[in-house]
Structure formats: structure tokens, C-alpha cells
Amino acid sequence: MRTSFRMFSRQIPSYEEFSILRKNKSSHTYSRMVFFAEHRYGNRNIVVCEIDWVKGIFGMHIPDGMLSTGTWVTCWFGAGGVFAYACSWVRTHLDRSKIVVMAVLAAMVFALQMLNFPVAGGTSGHFGGGVLAALVLGPLPASLVMSAVLVVQAVFFGDGGITTLGANILNMGVIAPFVGWAINRLLCKIHDSKKTRIVWAAVAAWFGVFVPACAVAVELWASGSANFLTALYAMGFWHAIIGIGEAVITAGVITFILNAKPDLLDDVVQSKGSNRGVTIVLGIITLLAAGLSFLASSAPDGLEFVYFEELGFAQDSVVGTFLSAPWQDYVIGGIGNETLAGVLAGIVGAILVAALGYVLVRFLKAGANEPFSKKSMK
Amino acid sequence: MEFSTKEFDSPIGDIDGRAKVIAAVALVVSIVMNAPLKPIEFFGVALVLLAVALMGRVRLGRLFARSLVVIPFAGAMALFAPLKLVESWTFSGVQTALSQGWPLMVDMISVAWLSVLCMMTLVSISSSSEIYAAMGRLHVPSVFVMLISFIERYLELFRDQIVTMQRAIVARAPRMSRRHMVGVYGGLAGNLIVRASEKGERVFAAMEARGYTGTMPTLVPPKFGASEILLLGTTLLAISAMALY
After folding, report:
1. Are residues B119 and B143 in the same domain?
2. In a mutagenesis test of the B interface, which of A14, A26, A66 is the best target, namely the one with the most B β-carbons within 10 Å?
3. How many domains does chain B have?
4. Does residue B243 belong to the interface with chain A, where contact is any CB pair within 8 Å?
């Protein structure tokens, strides 16, 4: 610790000096302070093995090859749905000047990810910014901003994969901003003052790191890439600590904005207060649950067990008695990969149920909006 | 900060961005879907990418170094794979699992590296504006393409500001505790957000004064001729070979 403090009092060394200094552990902290921002992506070939190795451990950007086909396709559906809705929402609700402001903020969130802070045991975390973007811009623009950041990282810098981009967007671009925003909003409803808003922002930021980390663990487990508890412990434990750094930085940002330009936060609270965000999150969870249907047990359900195995009815006697289902056993026919067929069947089924539900609700609502109900007319 | 390493004009670099983006993404999807890769598949794809890079007059050492960025990320996650084979959480149990599960780890890392190599090759033979234009022509929402292009445009500015502010912190408070430092970072980030939002408004006013219509113009004309079809056909052949082998 002392050594690293002495380092700070030094004059900033040149890169050649730094190359010598980085050999000891104390210089690592110093390198994160000054040099990481300069060299993070620019001279990656030089610094990657020296500095980035610690960031890689327990990072949240999932590379290609880590998730099974069923999982990454499902995540693409979830992320794609939110992405399409966010794009249309931004186009219809924000004027062009606001979109440009959003774009500049996207660049800033990308740049802020260079802020690294020491965590423990020589590791460090970097600022995520998903929750902060949601607090400043609202959850839907924030999910677009984070998606843009993740696409740039995946395509241009190899941070995160292409097939797993859906999962990365879902974790860091959807779950993080929505969870953080929802928690902040909920807590603000309980008590809203300048001081508590800072505390709530910090709490929201912590959850905005911890919950996506758990989502990564679930995705790895669903893909069969990791044991559930091992992945959950590794991801959850370290991100619970990294979340503290994120919370402190977010609290600092909110304090500064509340003092310097409070209207930046007020606009968001007033204008983005619809229930659509909640609807979207519920939609994603439904789609994900449907998509992960390939994890379902292949054993017969209770009714099937009693009917076929306890009572001894032959399955052939039932098949053909009723209308035959187009996708029996929740698998779309004609697709070779059984997992993919199951995932698609689950997603299409969920969409069909949602569409039917929507039509039903619209129908009932149309009746409810009539000036006089039929009962009162009698 | 380099988004693209394109330095020379080359026959493969002149191919339309759409064809290059589609080919790269298709190849990555194919690599992932065919995992675990056999050695011949792995080296076959690597050789194809090497040939593309050579035709694109890309510096191979630099490309290779940039592709290595994925190793720490993939390596850390791949470490979980052998651990699922652990039967008893003792030293010998973990050791046995690691000795049995290392092929799983190698498979994961090789797929991740090959995928990144593929994307880095794409980035090396295309300029970033070419990729944005391709995304726009492939019907990626214009709002999103604009966001991405702005990240590149303004990243340098914010990076400079962050580095300047970090140097100022080091110069003014050399003995600050780590906890205090994290708090100071919050103020630094807040300052940047306020600056960014104000700058965004000024940027928009300046852009509108110069005739901005909502889309970024590109100097790369769209074309889809024989060379594009040839690239897509070759990719299709490579994918088929991997699938059928």
C-alpha cells in the first residue's frame, strides 16, 4: 500500500519507465490509475497480458463458445425484442437533439468504463455505467446506449462474442439498467429527498452489477458450461464487491449532478414513468423462460403419469382421438436440432399466448370504455 | 484509440462492407455451432483467415496480438468447465477434474479465439465508417448506427478529458486513500456527464447548421458485384465444409 502511495507522488513516468515499473505489484495500482486509460485498447498487444488479465477473471463479457446454441439464441430473442422496442421508442419519444445528446453520452459511458478501481487480492473492477445511464437517460435509452457500447466492444475490440452478444446485451444492456432503474424508482417512492436519492442510486447501482452477474452464472449453467453453484458463487461474490465500487462512483456522480444540474435527473423521473418498462421486463422473462424450455425434465407430468402409467392406458389409444397438435412435445417439426426446435417452439408459444392475451384484454377494455354498461341499459 | 487497423487499399479491402460483415458473422456462427472443433477444422479456418489477412495486406503480428485479447476472458470462464466434473471438493478431486476436463477448456478457448480472430480480421480489412455504412444498408436502425458512430467520434475527446482529470487527481492529491479515490472518481464522472450533455446540445446545433439530416454520409459507394458474391460463396463453402466434415 505504502509503495503505491509513493508511486503517486512521483512524476508521471514515460511508457518505457512504466514498462520497468510494472514488474512489481505496487505499480499495478498506479498503472490502473494513469496508464490503463491511455493504453486500454490502443496498444492492446502490449498491455493485454500485463494488465488486462485481472479484469478478465470474473468479467461479464461472455466470449463466443461459452454458451450453448439454445441459450444464445434465446438471449438474442430477448435482447432483440427489447432493442427493437427501444429503437422505436427513442425515435418516437425523443427529438433529434436529444438523440444526439444520448449519442454523446454513449461515448462518455464507453470512456467511463476506463475508470478502474482496485477490488481485492490484486484484482480490479471497472465502472459499468448501465445503471447510471438509466438514471440519467431512462431505462430504454440506456439499454440502447449500453447495446451500442457492447456492439463496439465486440466488433472492434473483441470484448465479448458475436453469438453471445445477445446475452451480453441482455445482461449489461437490459437487466442492469432495468433492475437499477426499477429499484431506484421503487425506493424513491418510499422516500424522496436529495440525500436519499444519492443512497438509492448507490443501492440501485450495486444491484445493477450483482443481478447481471448472477444472470451470467445462470446462462453458463443453462449452457452446461459450468456448475450452477460454482458459477453463481464466483460471479456473485466478486461482483458483490465490484458493485460496491460501482455504487460509490454512481453515488458520487448523482451527488455532483444534483448539485450542478439537477434538472438532468428530474426530466427522467417525470417523463419515463410509464409501466411499459415493467411490461418489457416481464416480456423478456417470459421469453427467456420459454426459450429455456429445453431444460425442462423429459419425465411425464403428473396427469400423464397417472393416466398412462398408473391406470395403464396405452398412449396409442389417445393419439389421434383428439386433434393432433402442430408441435407435439413442444418441438417444432422439420428442425434437425431438437434443442433449437424446442427453444423456437417455446418462444413462438409465448408470443402466441401474449398475442391472445392482448386481444382478450383489448376486447374487454373496449367494453369497459363504453359510457354505459349493458347491465345498466336493461 | 484505434477502431480500425486498415492502412492499405487491397483487393479484399475494396469489397463491399455488407458482404464482409455477413461473411464474418456467418463464419463466427458456424465456428460456434460446430464446436468442439476438430484440429483440422481449427487450422483450416485459421488458414482461411490468414489468407484473407494476407490478401488484405494486414500486419499479421498486430492482428494476432489484437486477437489475443480474448484469452484472459475466455480462459477465466473456461476454468469453470472442468470444475463441473468435480465429484468431491478436495484437492485430489479438483486435480482429477482438471486433468480430465482440460480438453473442454481448450475447446472453449479455441472457439473464442477463432471467433475474435475472425472479427479482428474484418476490422483490419475494413474502415470503421465502412462497417457503419454496411450496418445501415443491412437495415440496422439508423438511431443505433448513429450511436455507434458517435462513440468513435467523441471517444477520443472524452478519453483525453478522463486522462487529464486523472493526472490532475494524481498531481493534487498524491496521498489519497483508495476509498476516497473511488469517491473522487464519482465526482469526475459526474462532471463529465454534465459536460457531455451540454456538449451534446452544442454539437447538435453545430451539426444542424452544417446541414445534418439525421444520417451520417459515407464516401463508400454501395456495390454488390462479382467479388462480393465470390466472398460470400467462399464463406458458404467453408461453412458447408465445416458442417459436413
Report:
1. no
2. A66
3. 2
4. no
Residue of A66, A70, A262 whose CA lies nearest to A162: A66
At A173-198, the pLDDT tens digits run: 999 999 999 999 999 988 888 889 99
Would you say residue A372 has pLDDT above 50? no
- Are A152 and A24 members of one domain? no
B76–A260 CB contact, under 8 Å: no
Please indicate if any CB of chain A lies within 8 Å of the CB of B139. Answer: no
**Distance (Å) of CA B99 to CA A189, A325, B58, B89:** 54, 47, 38, 15
What cell was used for A96? Answer: 433529434
The 10s digit of each residue's pLDDT in B199-245 is: 777 877 888 888 877 666 666 677 888 888 999 999 999 888 888 87
Residue A277 pLDDT:
56
Both A336 and A257 in one domain: the answer is no
User: Any bridge partners for residue A124, and if so which?
Assistant: A118
Residue A32: DSSP 8-state: I
Calculate the alpha carbon distances from A129 to A70, A115, A179, A209, B17 in Å. 29, 10, 13, 9, 31
* Surface-to-core class of residue B206, CB atoms within 10 Å of its CB (0-12 exposed, 13-18 middle, 19+ buried): exposed
Question: Is the bond leading into A177 cis (omega within 30 degrees of zero)?
Answer: no
Average the pLDDT over each of A42-51, A160-169, A224-233, B52-61 and give the range with the smallest value: A42-51
Q: What span, in angstroms and rounded, lies between the C-alpha atoms of A242 and A221?
A: 22
The answer as to whether B11 is a domain residue is no
